[in-house]
Each structure stands twice: as C-alpha cells, then as structure tokens.
C-alpha cells in the first residue's frame, strides 16, 4: 500500500501522533492485532505502521507473538505509574492549594525520575513567573530542594545513580562535588527538609519536605520564592511545609507507623479537587516534554 499523500494546506502527522494512533488501535475488546488490523484501525500507511510497531516492540511497549501484536509490559508499567501519580496528585491537590493560600508562595509537587525531578503540580498565580517552572517540567535532582528532600530518604543505589550521572552546575551556587551533596543530604535527614539556596536558578530559593512514612520518600512538596525576603519567609514557613507533607501522607495511607507522638498540625482545608488528567495526558507531560 503506497504512503498516503498529505492534502495541501494540512500538516503531516508527527511521529508521536502516528505512534499514538497505533497504540490507540489496541483496546480491551481486541488486545491482539495483526499488522493489517493495526493499519485498518489506525489509518497509518503500512510502511509507517510496520516501522512504528517494530520500534514499540524494541521499547517493550508492545509484544509480538507470531504475526500478532499486543500490549507489552512497558505499557503496563506506564499505566501503573500514571495511576500512582494521579492518586498522589489527587490526594495532595487540596493541601497544596491550602499551603499556597496561607503562605502566598509558589507550591510544587515533585517525584524523582532517575537523576531528575518531574513536576506533577504547580500551584500559584497564573501571572506568577518569578520561578520558571511548569507541570511536566524536569530539573536535575541534585540542585533542587525537592530532589534533595527525596534523595535524603532514598536507598544508596538511587543516590549513587545521581552522582554517576554527574553534578552539573546551573548557577555558581550549585553543589557540584559529591561530598558537598552527601553533606546536604545528611543535613536534610536531620532537619526533615531540604533547601535550594539559588542552586537551580539565580535569586530563587526553595524549601522542600519529603512525602514518606517510616521508609523511603516517594515525592516532595516544595515552597519557592524569589529574593532575600523569600529566603527569610521560607525558613519561617518550614514547619508549615513539613506539616503539609505529613498531612498528605496521612491522607494517602493513614497514620501508619509514623504515629508515635501527637500528630503535627495539618494544612488548612483546601479547595475542591480539579479534574484529573488521563493517562495519555500524563505521558505527554512526563515523557515527551
């Protein structure tokens, strides 16, 4: 079958759009498809469909059994990851809004992905550009408060992986020596929070608390501001960030093993939850942007 021609004035679909159409051909009713069925369902020309299918098999997103294709373990893992992140974001969202309303500072929710942190949520004014961040954006973990807060309560192999990736400077204040980063992580374990003192962006400071029970951190909540006034504010507001992180953890898992003394004060009540992104929306943010 010859490649389809593009009508004048219309843009050819991108490779990502073609791959999305190929993946969209698989559904619950038809978990196994032949090449011909994929072409019919997706509308992608044969040569492109065959090439994309081969690439998706190599990536582990699809499996091939004889002449048929089906969803692979890679897609199942992404689905589980998206479900986990959506559950985390859904539980945290009202508390993040409450923390922003009570402090006036930008609030972020981050998770660790390799040597980087990925922003799951950003709460602040629409016109607030004091901190250059966005949902789905990535930053090196070693120079962010959120990254250090998570790494401080991660297993040694995770920390070693970040060190092996390299501690590249983003500002003159970025920690670029392994000993300096290890010391910062030890201090974060002692304090329960981590700081970014203009290490990721000039004139931007942050404080972050990990989301964790008695074990490893799964995410971090950070408060960000710009200038010396923000630095004094963040030091003063550190207990509020800690309390918010602990409250989100309790919302997710209940008191659990962490209830050994009187519980810390919770964040102020938040607003109603926003509509959640679907799985492909999350994949677009975290994998392709």
Could you provide a short overview of the structure?
The protein is 45% helix and 17% strand. The protein is of the alpha+beta class.
What is the SS-derived class? Answer: alpha+beta
Helix content: 40-55%
How many strand elements? 9
Report the end-to-end length measured between terminal Cα atoms: 33 Å
Organism: Streptomyces antnestii
Protein name: Glycerol operon regulatory protein
GO molecular function, one term: DNA-binding transcription factor activity
InterPro entries: GAF-like_dom_sf, HTH_MetabolicPath_Reg, Tscrpt_reg_IclR_C, Tscrpt_reg_IclR_N, WH-like_DNA-bd_sf, WH_DNA-bd_sf
What's the arrangement of secondary structure elements?
Blueprint: H1 15-24, E1 32-34, H2 35-42, H3 46-59, E2 62-65, E3 68-71, H4 73-103, E4 106-113, E5 116-123, E6 138-140, H5 145-151, H6 156-165, H7 178-191, E7 194-197, E8 204-211, E9 219-226, H8 228-253, H9 279-288
Structure description:
Mean pLDDT is 80; it is low at 1-9 and 257-289. The protein has helices at residues 15-24, 35-42, 46-59, 73-103, 145-151, 156-165, 178-191, 228-253, 279-288, and strands at 32-34, 62-65, 68-71, 106-113, 116-123, 138-140, 194-197, 204-211, 219-226. A 6-stranded antiparallel beta sheet has the order 6-5-4-9-8-7. Strands 1-3-2 form a 3-stranded antiparallel beta sheet. The protein contains 9 helices and 9 strands. Helix 1 (15-24) packs across helix 3 (46-59) and helix 2 crosses helix 3 (46-59).
